[in-house]
Every structure is written in C-alpha cells, then in structure tokens.
Amino acid sequence: MLRTHTCGELNLSNIGQKVVISGWVNSIRNHGGLIFVDLRDRYGLTQVKFNQSDNKEAAAIAEKLHDEWVVKVKGEVEARPADMVNAKTATGTIEVIASEIEILGQAKVLPFEINEEKNAEANEALRLKYRFIDLRRPKLQEMLRVKDKFISYIRDYFHQRDFVEVQTPILANSSPEGARDFLVPSRLYPGKFYALPQAPQQFKQLLMVGGVDKYFQIAPCFRDEDPRMDRHYGEFYQLDMEMSFVEQEDVFAVMDPLMIELTEKFSSKKIINLQPDGRFPRLSWREAMDRYGSDKPDLRFDLSIKDVSDAVRDCGFSVFTDTLDNKGVVHALKIDGGAKFTRKEIDEYTELAKKRGAKGLAYLSLKEGSINSPFAKFMAPEKLQAIATACEAREGDLVFFAADAWRTVCNVLGAVRNEAASRLGLKDNAKAAWLWIVDFPMYDYSEIEEGRIDFGHNPFSMPQGGLKALEEQDPLDILAYQYDLVINGFEASSGAIRNHDPEIMYKAFAIAGYSREEVDHKFGAMINAFSYGAPPHGGNAPGIDRILMVLNDWDSIRDIYAFPKDGQGRDLMTDSPSEVNPKQLDELYLAVNHRKK
Questions:
Q1: pLDDT value at position 594?
Q2: Over the range 95-122, which residues count as b (16 or more CB within 10 Å of their CB) and which as e?
C-alpha cells in the first residue's frame, strides 16, 4: 500500500493510528538526533519526524533525502508539543513519527524554486519548459481545482434546465469566423483539408434544426490569432449554448442568473450594476462607443465621453472646425481632478492617442478659477467658457478633446479613458460590472479591402428587419440581433439570434460580396438543413478561461491552462510546433516551402 491518507487530512482525531503517507519532500530540517521532513502532495503538508535513537535505519535514509524526492513513509500519528503547533496549516497539530521510509523517486536539482515568493524570480520561459515542475506550486494547483469546480457548476446549471450536452466535431470545415483556421491535411483526400473549429457555430445551429432544442457544450475552439493577456494562443474553451424558439431576451434570461451565481461563488467581487429586476444592464453598440469609446466598456468607474461637436462649431480653432467641415466629430472626456496632471503626463496621454490614430490630443483644465488651454488663444473667452460648460467641467478638472472621424475619436478617447482610470486607481477589483452590448452593426467596411462591405460581427446573425432591411436599407445602417456580454472591460461572451432563413442568408452574404455558389460551397450543409424546416434559434458562447481570469484577478490567462503555449505560441516543454518526418509529409502529399515571407 502506497498510502492510507493524504498529506492534508491528518489531525488530532488520528492520534495513535498507524498510517502510510506518500508525497514529495518539501523541506528538510536536521537537528542532530532529530530530522524533520515536510511531506507534500496536492492536499497539503504533513510533518514527519525521524528519531535516530529510536530508528537508526529510517533516520539514515532520511539524512540522504533532498527536496522534491518522492517517498513513502510509515509511522504513527502523534500530537505535536504545544509550543510546536503550526496554526497556519491544516495538519499543524500533529506529526507522524516515522518507523519506515522508502524512496520512490529521486529528483535532480530543480531549475527554479517552487516556493511562491522565490518562483517569481524564474522567467516564464523557464517555468513553461519545466511546466510539470511548475504545476507543483500550490497556486497553480488551486487554479486547476477552481476551474474544475467552475466547469462542474456550469454543467449542473444547464442540466437542471433541461439542456443536453453534445460534443460537436473537432475535424470540421473551414469557416469565416474572424480568425485564421488551423488546417489539417487529409491523407485519404490529397489536396483537401479539414479545419479545427474556431467555434461549433454551424454544428450547434444544425442541432437546432435537428430538434435538440436546448444544447450546451464545454467546447474546445482553435484560432490562429496573436496571443495577449486575456487570450491564449491556439486553443481555448468556451461554454457554447444554443436554444430554439427564442428571442434575444430569452438568452439573457438564462445567462444573467448563471453569471451572477458564478460571480458570487467563484470570486469575492460584488456586482454593482444590477437593474431593479435583478438583470444586467444593456447598452447599444453605438451608445457604448459614443459614451465610453469601446464596445467592451469598463463600468466600474463613471468617466464618460461627450459629443461636443455643436459646442465647438465655429469656435475659431481650426483643428475642430476643419474636422467638422469634413464630416468628422469632436468628442470630450472630462477627468475629475485631472487638472493635477503634469505636462509630462499629458504628453504621455497624447502619445497614447497618436498610437490609436489621432493626430494629437487637445485639452483644457480649470485651475484657480481660470480656464487654461493651448487652444484658448484661438477663441473668445466666452466661447472657451461655453465649451467648458458644455463639458460640465469644474474647478480642478481636465478635459481631453479628440477631433477626427467618428470611429477614430471613439477608439482614441476610449484608450485615454482606460489609461486615466488605471492611473487614478478607479478600477476597483472588489467590483464586478456586467452588461450586455446589443444592436451591433450587421456590416462594416472591410479591414482588408478598402471600400468593400463586409460582416461587422457574426455572419450567421439575423438582421433586424429581416429580408426587407437587407433589400431597402443602406448596409451600414442595418443592425443585427447580435450581443456581447462584458465584465470590467473584458468581452466575456459573444452571441446572436441566428439567421435561419435560406433566402435571408443568401441576401446577407451577397451584400458582403459572396455569390450564391460560394455560399452553397462554404455553408452547403447549413443552407440545405434550413430548407427542411428550421426553428428560430439563438445562443452565445462565454469564454470560460477569460471569465475565470477576470473574476479572480489572475495575472495571465496562460496559467489557467495545465500546459499552455507561451507568448509566441510555442510549447516550450514539448518543443512544438516542430518539424515532422518527411515520410509523414509524403503520406499527406505535402512539401514544405522554406522561402521567407
């Protein structure tokens, strides 16, 4: 028998019992005739005492031990002396008096310390190369346990509401989901490829056509997009759900209570912005961009942006007037108490604005009863006062102005707003501000091909107004039944009421430049299925790892994965991606092109 108890469960009720425990040597303290070994497993620590006068053989083996060796110990549980009790650990009232010890595995000197404080000194690349050692850290063990409980809670929630968990294919077809696909060459069909699913989008809609009615899945998704703090490279997991015979509010009615419960049970945050009906607030995409400069605004703080185009019209400052004459806008961001910012700090905000596409950043401040601004010399004092009044600026405030095309102005002041909140300490981690962003534009200009109309969000969404809107409205004015769930400035989920009508789908794709033949080729299974009677349906797909990261204020999404990729998309532990045997390439009818891009 390798163990009768774990290293975290023994207590005073076990006094006098003969036990067997196994684990890693966490630390060793040799006090001459007495040797103390802290033995560790995922459940905790137990102190083991070796007495040379009572058991020379076991003590001799204990003297040879090193940190992280794996051992099995037999012994008897005794109470620790009162002055030796360790109240910080669950097993701190007892110790095991060793009678036998067996070395199960030796360990080389570790490349870095497991101790949490010293571990911070190890760079991430080294920790990821030896991830199997890094995983021994209690912090990472706890993160994996929390993720397990989180997913179990989600599963129970949906099962209690009569949802059916269905696993959709991993080898699928390439689909325009907004990121690059990971392609898998087919050995049986030379020159053809599967694609790893960016999301189970088409399959879950086909399940609705199949009459499943309520579906969910803890779905693996694969996207070849650049990693960042809240996005793991290559693969991630989402709670994928879909329902038939629903409208937008029906989806919200299922998701709001779940997110409230997850926040309350898996974080210490307090939800600050529930509506009187106990639901999350809703903002249209346009309103969110206008007021906060972002489609995922952080509402833990009140900094809001105002359109002051009318207030600055004909003011005499050419930056403003020329922008308005060219159909641009002027927006303002008032920062309470911002007049204390130094010139250096204002210059730093200006540089941030330029990185987001602005030519510069105008400002005014109210200090000691007067309005100070580099553009004050271009306008009459009463006009300057009128602008300050329009911005609701008071003594001690600073107002930033951006003048440009609407989208640029939103992006610029959204970034400035976020940075100001960070510098002023307005992002309270004790708060959770959830909200739905609704009424996304169905179409936008393509980021790849200038002047071309493309889908703004999800191509499978139902346009508001249906076929009539597609036929009669300017594409850029058409809204979709699309929505995002946001928490504290992070997108937690994206979803939509789906387009289930073949004719509406053909027309929607035609506006984006797809021929009927292309739609049939790319989405033939879905189009065909919809022609056999498709119910109205909709859903969404919250990112499990991202929500966990935000709820717990964890530093990086990578640590939520047992074996993550690094910031360049590499697995340093298994050395992937890697070259493969030429024979494997031959079987797939592939050749590697070594030319540089």
A1: 76
A2: bbbbeebeeeeeeeeeebebeeeeeeeb
Helix (H, G, I), strand (E, B) or coil at 195: strand
Cβ atoms of 528 and 534 closer than 8 Å: no
Instruction: Indicate the pTM of the whole model.
Output: 0.91
Tell me how far apart the alpha carbons of residues 516 and 501 are, in angstroms, rounded to a whole number.
Answer: 14
Query: Can you tell me whether residue 279 is helix, strand or coil?
Result: coil
Cα(299)–Cα(292) distance, integer angstroms: 9
Strand extents, DSSP E, 417-550: 431-432, 434-438, 443-445, 453-455, 482-487, 490-497, 537-540
Strand, helix or coil for residue 360? coil
Query: What are the two backbone dihedrals, phi and then psi, of residue 432, each rounded to the nearest 5 degrees?
Result: -125, 120
Cα separation, 144 vs 310, whole angstroms: 54
C-alpha dihedral, 564 to 570 to 571 to 572, nearest 10°: -120
Contact status, residue 384 vs residue 373, Cβ threshold 8 Å? yes
Are 288 and 294 within 8 A, CB to CB?
yes
DSSP string, 43-91: TEEEEEEEETTT-HHHHHHHHT--TT-EEEEEEEEEEPPGGG--TTSTT
Q: What is the pLDDT of residues 447-461, one digit of tens each?
A: 777 778 999 888 899
Q: What is the phi-psi region of residue 264: left when phi exceeds 0, alpha when psi lies from -120 to 50, beta otherwise?
A: alpha
Question: Do the beta carbons of residue 361 and residue 412 sit within 8 Å?
Answer: yes
Location of structure tokens 């980021």: 447
User: Which stretches within 272-405 are classed as H helix?
Assistant: 285-292, 309-312, 318-325, 343-355, 381-390
198: region left, alpha or beta (phi > 0 left; psi from -120 to 50 alpha)? alpha
pLDDT digits (tens, 9 = 90+) for 264-276: 999 999 999 999 9
DSSP 572: T
Q: Phi/psi zone of residue 242: left (φ > 0), alpha (ψ -120 to 50 degrees), beta?
A: beta
What is the distance between the alpha carbons of residues 431 and 407, in angstroms, rounded to a whole number? 29
Does residue 43 have a pLDDT over 70?
yes
Could you read off the pLDDT of 493-542 as tens digits, one per residue?
A: 999 999 999 999 999 999 999 999 999 988 888 899 999 999 999 999 99
pLDDT higher than 80, residue 121: no
- 8 Å CB contact between 487 and 547: yes
**Single-letter residue type at 352:** L
